[in-house]
Amino acid sequence: MWAKSLSGLGVSVPHEKPDRIANVNTAEYSYESIKEISLIKPATSSFTPEEAATTVIQQINNGFMTNGTFGQPANKDKLDASFMALAHHDQPICERVIFASLNEEIAAQEKRVLDARRRLQEVMKYFG
Fold first, then answer.
1. 3: buried, middle or exposed (CB in 10 Å: 19+, 13-18, 0-12)?
2. How many angstroms separate the Cα of 56 from the Cα of each of 49, 78, 98, 113?
3. How many CB atoms are closer than 10 A to CB 97?
4. Where in the numbering of this chain does the Methyl-CpG binding protein 2/3 C-terminal domain appear (predicted)?
5. What confidence tens digit (pLDDT) does each residue in 8-23 have?
6. CA angle 11, 64, 7 (to 5 degrees)
7. DSSP class of residue 94?
8. Which residue from 50, 64, 126 is spatially nearest to 94, judged by alpha carbons?
9. Distance of alpha carbon 88 from alpha carbon 94, whole angstroms
C-alpha cells in the first residue's frame, strides 16, 4: 500500500532561507520527524497519526487535490473491515476533517502567536 511507504518520513528545515541556498549539497539542515496533528486522525487502525498526517502532506504537495482534500468518507469500523473496497484513493488516509473545528484550531493558534509576540515585546523592552 503506497501510504505505508510514507511511514517514518521526516522533514528537513534549511538553516538559510530556501531561496538563498547556493548549493543544496553543502547547505545545513535540521531534521525533524513529522508530528501528530490534533485534527487529523487515521481513517483506519492500520495507520498511525503521523502516517495519516503524511498522507495529507503528500496529497497537498503532489497536487492531487482535484476535488479538495477532505479525508475518507467511510467510518473507521467499515474501513478496518474492508479497506481496499471502501477507501477513496484520491483522498488522504484520515478521517474527514470538520471545517468548523478548523476555525477553532486556527483561532487558538492565532491567540498563541499573539501571546508569544506580546511576551517577546516585554522581553525586548526589558533588555532593550
1. buried
2. 11, 21, 15, 24
3. 18
4. 33-124
5. 667 777 777 766 777 7
6. 35
7. B
8. 50
9. 11
